[in-house]
Amino acid sequence: MARLAARARRVRPAADAIVVGGGPAGALAALTLARRGVGTLVLDTKRFPRDKPCGGGIRYGVYRRFPELAGYLREAVAVHEIRRVRMESPSGASVLAESDGPLYLTLRRTELDAALVARARAAGAEVVERARVVEVERRAEGVTVRTVDGRAFAARLVIGADGVNSVVVRAAGLSDGFPEAALALDTMEETALDELSVADPETMYVAYGYKGWPGYGYVFPKRHHVDAGVGVLLPFFKRTLGGAPAEHHRRFLEEAAAKGVVRGRPNPDNFKAYRLPLGGPLARTVADRTLVCGDAGGFVNAYTGEGIYYAMVTGEHAGEAAADALGRGDCSAAGLASYEARWRREIGAELAGSLRIQRRLFARPWLADAVIRAAAGDPKLCRLFARVALGEDDLRARRLEIAARMLLAALRGRIGFAALVRR
Ligand SMILES: Cc1cc2nc3c(=O)[nH]c(=O)nc-3n(C[C@H](O)[C@H](O)[C@H](O)COP(=O)(O)OP(=O)(O)OC[C@H]3O[C@@H](n4cnc5c(N)ncnc54)[C@H](O)[C@@H]3O)c2cc1C
Prior knowledge:
Elements: H1 2-9, E1 11-20, H2 24-35, E2 40-43, E3 57-59, H3 62-65, H4 67-76, E4 80-82, E5 84-88, E6 94-98, E7 104-106, H5 109-122, E8 126-128, E9 133-139, E10 142-147, E11 152-160, H6 167-171, E12 183-192, E13 196-198, E14 203-208, E15 215-221, E16 225-233, H7 234-241, H8 245-258, E17 262-264, E18 271-277, E19 286-287, E20 290-292, H9 308-328, H10 338-363, H11 365-376, H12 379-389, H13 399-411, H14 418-421
The chain binds flavin-adenine dinucleotide (FAD).
């Protein structure tokens, strides 16, 4: 007891920056800071390699966005390339999106996250594992971060990369936690190919509006595993669906097996369910001496559930903005505001567009149906939807073309005219 109290009083000599959380957001923030010569400390409650409930699918464009990591990830992680995505509508209509090159990468989060943390370490960041942060105190001259076992760490600023239940976000007064309406419940299991396999290892399967629910079901083939699950908005799960997430997950995989999408047996030992922020980024992502990135800031595509890419992008921007602010000696919210300008410029429109799509499609299963039926008869429309989902095209800029192609689909009798006018 006395030892714990003595430990609690001892504050370690200050780092320049503390990053709470060593997932993709925290690792990229730490890597960026360390490369800029900033003394960086990463605190994570877990010990790496550790797992994170996730489908493990990332857009192929991550290699273009982070060229210096591409070769490293190919070597350090068993990356699998996906060339086709089969999208299925609530009524069972489906379309196969494909292109000449790969569309997505799939990988295991145990491997990806450990590799990214190792990269940050190699660049000079110190990583303290088994350090669960419970308190962040901000003062005029700096921050003190305390862990559950009484350790205290001081720095000039803190980056919150501590995921959907962020302690840093709350401590900075940026949010009291995501409201239920901004959350989804996602299930997953990552099962070895000799137990559960897929019909086509290069094709992802996504059931949009699965069973007419506001969400999706997915099957992602990996190099040596299959990752599959169901995600639905949390209010729908709590008020309408009910039941055990594991049961919905099991039924989804039984149906996928009946359709020939998977073969073999799911393994309940590999089942996990976790929350995912699907309501768009927080209104503010900086406060005095604080920046937040990744899931902590709500940076997730609101209708695909993709979050790893945005975590890496916002982690890097947070690291750059923090290094600039430390260099200028101004870690106030105003001094850190360039972070918000940076992420908004790169992914602001894309994330706002994803929320508009979610609100339309998740509330109207018949619209998801019409979109997939129209895309099935129009390869250009199909490619356009795929490019929007991959962040390579802007929904707003292409909305007239999409409307025209939907009209064409109605004229050809593929979808009813009602789909064009029903709200
Ligand atoms: C079932 C499911 C499937 C998904 N599928 C995909 C997918 O296929 N593709 C995709 O791109 N995204 C997917 N996502 C979303 C993706 O997992 C997240 O967006 C992504 O992990 C966010 O990265 P992050 O670094 O912000 O947070 P995280 O990966 O959650 O990392 C946070 C880190 O902070 C640590 N931490 C948390 N609290 C504390 C604390 N108090 N003190 C110290 N450390 C702490 C954790 O141990 C963890 O290491 C899925 C999510 C779920 C739930």
